[in-house]
Design goal:
The structure holds 2 protein chains of 2 kinds.
Chain A (H helix, E strand, L loop, with lengths): L1 H21 L7 E7 L15 H4 L8 E4 L4 E4 L2 E6 L5 E6 L13 H13 L14 E8 L2 E6 L6 H5 L7 H4 L19 E7 L3 E6 L15 E7 L2 H9 L5 E2 L6 H8 L4 E3 L3 E9 L9 H9 L3 H8 L5 E2 L16 H7 L7 H10 L21 E6 L3 H16 L4 E6 L1 H10 L4 E4 L8 H8 L17 H10 L5 H18 L2 E8 L3 E3 L3 E2 L17 H8 L2 E2 L1
Parallel strand pairs in A: 1-10, 15-16, 15-17
Antiparallel strand pairs in A: 2-3, 4-5, 5-7, 6-7, 8-9, 9-10, 11-19, 12-19, 13-17, 13-18, 14-18, 20-21
Helix pairs in contact in A: 6-7, 8-11, 9-12, 10-16, 14-15, 15-16
Chain B lengths: L1 H27 L4 H8 L6 H10 L7 H13 L14 H36 L4 H15 L2 H15 L19 H38 L2 H9 L3 H28 L4 H6 L5 H10 L3 H29 L6
Helix pairs in contact in B: 1-13, 5-6, 5-8, 5-10, 5-13, 6-8, 7-8, 8-10, 9-10, 10-13, 12-13
Classes of the chains: A alpha+beta, B mainly alpha.
């Protein structure tokens, strides 16, 4: 008896000291962030797109947030979730004792209410999972548990549910038109909910008086000051002058403009985001020959493209298996090793492969012809005005010319580009790939036949029913070993067929000013991908910040 | 009176034509608001979200003539509907927040440059061949011939970014609560200095030349010789005899300038992040925000036409020959 008491008090002591260790930072301070808009309006409705950046994550917390960089899930309003054994439903368990910022209880009633909003009105469905027919019903089981029922087997809903906004039923149930509702006196669940300043050029939102993590001393910062800027060009000088603490913008020559202005405190970190590929229509000559596609890829000097066309900010692709550094945690070394040679700059190998495959210069114009003698001359599509991509494609054509392939940069209007990619009427086209929670989302867009015509990444000729079936199976199992197998098969399929040529991973734009605020994620402390324009990653980043 | 009526009919027709162009032109531009938003988001938006968004904005694929009738009705009733990029804020609310800034900036800059420019023009004309007449107008012409975007950026770079004498942007310090307190008004003026100077630099030359040339003509008239012969002081001849008659072309120029002042603010407001109409137009065009774009352009057209109409009335008052 005595022993158990001792144990418990020891535990309590340990818990107390842990709590103290976490509350190492005193509360106080204001974070200043830029928002690109013409003017602020008094609108704190998360469902209308007007000013989502002001409220997402920090005013309306998600149930949980996937932290892909750390490979874990940060549970927020929810304590856990569990799929039923038959994968026909999911149960969400909330934290005990949650309250709204007006002091009312936040429980399963609110969660069920919020998730049900999307049922009849697609504009309120931020998960997209009512619209695609997955969710069949959402109901409260008891004040802490919500059951989401499916119309088919599924084990992926948690990737999408983190985008759902949980709003207070006691306020929203009386709102007639939820999209045009201004929500001028917002009631939220996040760390900052109280609007203290509302002007055309500045909005300040401060500490939630009823925050559920207040006992842990969170949030450290008192307020966020959102400042209006009309474009990137104005944010750069403001960052240099130290008016902004957290930038998420393209800054020209960041080292000599931003960092040099205050080397002690100004820093940036551009971790990899989505992988950029040149998609090829493999139903067309000469792209129907995998040797040609591989030679194309080997002719690319990716480091040079990254340095010259994009200021060195992106991360050059090194693997030919369909995913970039964003999903580094999911790389499969064995399969990567099989195909890495095809994503490595090697003019000699590219030339040799083209020669061997019969692509030679028969008419002596300096460019190779197809084996049947017809000329090779194709366009690579890029969107008008997307300058870094236009420059990248120009370099791609130069590298192709180096191995004797004639290709042209063709900048077209978005609508032309969009249609050509979706309908498969392009020859070659530069485009991104899907980044989300799980690499399968990228493969789903590459190879699932149901995505052909819908997505920009599927209509290259290698979408296949077998791969589609594997992808669907991935989404209906929780068996991690089986999932790894499926991913390996898809990576192998990508590497073997190479329906697109990987170039580089886009950077995540992120600059910080440590003069007043500390706790920034950095390459040395990569606790989260610091994306301001998100729900969960913004919240996790904000939670670690403190006044110096 | 008949003259005024004739002009009035002309203006009504002009407004109608302008309104029609205003409707057609944005729709001739490639892309639509959803595509523009999509491109701005770098494509990271699922197709379901696009559909939902279209529905939210109430995109009706009605025939063009129906959209046109709807548009005419909305203009006449001043119910311009919600802006797309700031949905669901009404266009009228957005305009009423931004228009005062532009009127303040453009109005002050135009009036100040008229005074400065006319004074220089007057002086130069009366002392023909003197130092001022030879060099000052040329200097201002040189300044005015630089593209406004370049002048604005140069001024911004030197005085805001490098010397840090003036703020980097905004109509007033965002940390201050707007009020009519003197300290706040001073802050507003402080923030308006650089944009105003930039605008004035590009405008002064016009006034110098308009008034100087008109004056030179007038000074050749017989009644000036007569006034000189009477032995009137030269200052009196300059202001009461010459300038009064040389003012007619200036009135035309002023009305044109006031009309175009709103449109001319685009570069300056963008560079200095000034919260006016000029900057709003750029944002609205980029977002293909048809309702807001139409409202802005309509406003510009109205400014030009109203200013011209006022000039017409002033003419009647200034020039007795038109009263018959």
């Amino acid at each position: 008896m005595l022993r158990t008491t001792l144990c418990i008090s020891a535990l309590a002591l340990a818990a107390a000291s842990m709590a103290q260790a976490q509350a190492a930072h005193p509360q106080g301070g204001t974070l200043t962030v830029p928002i690109i808009t013409a003017t602020f309006v008094e609108d704190f409705n998360p469902f209308s797109n007007a000013q989502e950046d002001l409220v997402r994550g920090t005013m309306f917390e998600p149930l949980w947030a996937h932290n892909v960089m750390q490979g874990d899930i940060a549970f927020r309003l929810a304590e856990s979730f569990a799929y039923a054994d038959d994968l026909m439903s999911m149960t969400i368990t909330l934290r005990d004792g949650l309250t709204w910022s007006d002091g009312e209880t936040l429980d399963a009633q609110d969660v069920a209410y919020s998730l049900n909003l999307g049922k009849d009105d697609a504009t309120l469905d931020k998960t997209g999972k009512w619209a695609d027919g997955l969710i069949s019903s959402v109901e409260m089981i008891d004040p802490l548990n919500v059951k989401v029922s499916f119309s088919r087997k599924d084990s992926t809903l948690d990737w999408y549910l983190e985008n759902a906004y949980i709003v207070p039923e006691h306020i929203w149930k009386d709102v007639e038109d939820k999209i045009t509702f201004k929500n001028s006196n917002p009631v939220g669940s996040g760390p900052i909910t109280e609007v203290t300043t509302m002007r055309d050029n500045q909005v300040e939102i401060c500490r939630n008086p009823h925050y559920y993590k207040a006992s842990e001393g969170l949030p450290y910062l008192d307020c966020i000051k959102f400042r209006q800027y009309s474009d990137n060009a104005q944010i750069q000088p403001a960052l240099m002058a130290g008016e902004i603490d957290w930038g998420s913008n393209f800054i020209a020559d960041v080292d000599s403009t931003f960092v040099a202005a205050d080397p002690e405190n100004h820093g940036y970190w551009y971790p990899a985001n989505d992988l950029i590929n040149v998609y090829l229509d493999t139903r067309e000559v000469p792209f129907n020959d995998v040797r040609f596609r591989r030679a194309f890829s080997m002719a690319m000097d990716r480091d040079a493209i990254v340095d010259l066309a994009a200021y060195g900010y992106p991360t050059a692709a090194t693997h030919a298996t369909g995913i970039g550094e964003y999903y580094a945690a999911s790389f499969n070394d064995t399969i990567n090793a099989k195909y890495d040679q095809y994503a490595t700059y090697d003019v000699a190998a590219a030339t040799a492969l083209l020669d061997e495959a019969g692509y030679v210069d028969t008419d002596g114009d300096g460019f190779r012809e197809n084996p049947d003698g017809s000329p090779i001359d194709f366009d690579i599509h890029v969107v008008n005005g997307w300058t870094d991509w236009v420059q990248s494609v120009q370099m791609v054509t130069e590298h192709l010319a180096e191995v004797g392939i004639k290709a042209n940069t063709k900048s077209v209007d978005w609508s032309v580009y969009d249609t050509a990619l979706k309908e498969g009427t392009y020859q070659a086209s530069i485009n991104w790939s899907v980044v989300g929670v799980d690499p399968i989302q990228a493969y789903n867009d590459y190879f699932n036949p149901s995505r052909v015509g819908q997505s920009w990444h599927a209509n290259h000729g290698f979408a296949s029913p077998e791969m589609g079936a594997l992808i669907d199976e991935y989404g209906t199992t929780t068996d991690t070993a089986r999932r790894e197998d499926i991913l390996a098969t898809l990576m192998d399929y990508t590497g073997e067929n190479m329906p697109f040529v990987p170039l580089f991973s886009n950077p995540t734009w992120y600059q910080y000013n440590a003069a007043r605020i500390g706790g920034w994620p950095t390459a040395e402390d990569p606790r989260v991908q610091p994306v301001f324009y998100s729900i969960g990653r913004k919240l996790i980043t904000f939670e670690g910040l403190y006044q110096k | 009176m008949a003259f005024i009526l004739r002009r009035l009919v002309f203006y009504i027709i002009a407004i109608f034509v302008a309104m029609t162009f205003n409707f057609i032109l944005p729709r001739l531009m490639p892309g639509d608001p959803v595509a523009a938003m999509f491109a701005a988001a770098g494509g990271k938006m699922p197709p379901e979200a696009i559909l939902a968004y279209k529905e939210m904005l109430g995109f009706v694929d009605a025939p063009l003539w129906q959209q046109y009738l709807q548009y005419l009705k909305s203009v006449v009733t001043f119910d311009l509907g919600p802006s797309i990029m700031l949905f669901p804020t009404p266009v009228t609310a957005v305009l009423s927040n931004t228009l005062p800034w532009t009127v303040f900036l453009a109005g002050f800059a135009t009036i100040m440059s008229i005074f400065i420019g006319c004074f220089i023009g007057l002086y130069a004309a009366y002392n023909r061949g003197g130092f001022v007449d030879r060099y000052v107008p040329v200097f201002w012409q040189f300044i005015a011939s630089m593209p406004q975007a370049v002048t604005a950026l140069l001024i911004f770079f030197v005085f805001s970014l490098t010397l840090k004498w003036f703020p980097l942007g905004f109509g007033f310090n965002p940390d201050l609560e707007p009020s009519w307190a003197p300290s706040f008004l001073v802050n507003v003026l402080y923030h308006a200095v650089l944009p105003m100077v930039t605008l004035m630099l590009s405008m002064i030359a016009t006034w110098v030349f308009t008034l100087r040339n008109a004056m030179v003509n007038v000074l050749g008239e017989d009644y000036i010789a007569m006034a000189k012969a009477k032995g009137l002081p030269s200052r009196r001849i300059m202001t009461h005899y010459a300038a009064r008659n040389a003012i007619l072309p200036v009135v035309t120029a002023v009305s044109m300038a006031l009309g175009f002042a709103v449109a001319g603010q685009v570069f300056v407001e963008t560079v200095f992040n000034y919260p006016g109409i000029g900057q709003l137009i750029i944002k609205a065009v980029a977002a293909r925000d048809y309702p807001l774009m139409q409202a802005c352009f309509l406003l510009i057209v109205l400014c030009v036409l109203v200013a011209n109409f006022i000039a017409d009335i002033l003419y009647v008052w200034l020039d007795p020959r038109l009263r018959t």
